[in-house]
Write a structure and sequence with these properties.
Blueprint (H helix, E strand, L loop, with lengths): L1 E4 L4 H13 L4 E4 L10 H4 L9 E3 L5 E3 L1 H11 L10 H22 L1 H9 L5 H24 L14 H15 L8 H11 L2 H6 L10
Helix pairs in contact: 1-3, 1-7, 4-6, 4-7, 7-8
């Protein structure tokens, strides 16, 4: 398999975590979206959405959208499972995952931030205030959901799930933008538990071959 991704893309980071957790080998193909490499024919001809990540299977099939890719990986290699065995558990994990993937990330991804600056002429600091506001709002909701669940090492249960694959990259990006992460004890405990695992360490941006100093 080949994973077309950008080291700083949180959606790409999610998929790298899933691949590392499952021990699935893949070729890392960098696409520097900050420079616009995703618009070049070498990638754009493969990715009709023009977005990373894109997973190319051994037979040449292309899969897009991080959540769909991770669920595909979970189905073709069930162990270790990233979704619980029971329907209610799966719903809980998907809900946590979607707080990040559907409520936080779409408001703050790179193309949105670029649009704010280039098209709407928003200055850097108001742009960063925008970023921090929506991340903090989303993570506060994430924390409230965790508080409704029994205590656990990770976001749901005692092994990492899809929710952890989503949470960790979002915390990395929140830290880059100096977002206030205080008052989120369950959220940050899950993050710390994840970062103690080699799979999360190997998937982090600084470990990527295209990481910038």
């Amino acid at each position: 398999m080949k994973l077309y991704n950008y080291f700083r893309s949180s959606a790409s980071f999610r998929v790298r975590i899933a691949l590392e957790l499952k021990g699935m080998a893949y070729d890392y193909v960098p696409v520097h979206i900050a420079r616009g490499d995703h618009k070049l024919p070498a990638f754009a001809d493969k990715a009709v959405e023009g977005l990373v990540p894109l997973l190319e299977l051994d037979d040449g099939t292309h899969l897009t959208q991080s959540m769909a890719i991770i669920e595909y990986l979970d189905e073709v290699q069930p162990a270790p499972a990233l979704l619980p065995a029971d329907a209610l558990g799966r719903a809980r994990v998907r809900a946590l995952s979607q707080i990040v993937a559907c409520e936080i990330h779409p408001l703050n991804n790179l193309r949105v931030l670029k649009y704010l600056v280039k098209e709407l002429k928003v200055e850097d600091e108001p742009k960063n205030v925008w970023y921090r506001h929506w991340v903090r709002t989303g993570l506060a909701a994430f924390e409230r959901q965790l508080a409704l669940q029994p205590q656990s090492a990770y976001c749901f249960g005692d092994t990492p799930t899809l929710a952890d694959c989503c949470l960790v990259p979002q915390i990395f990006n929140a830290q880059r933008f100096n977002t206030d992460l205080s008052g989120l004890p369950r959220t940050m405990a899950a993050f710390d538990a994840c970062m103690a695992l080699s799979a999360f360490q190997k998937a982090q941006p600084s470990a990527c071959p295209d990481a910038e100093a």
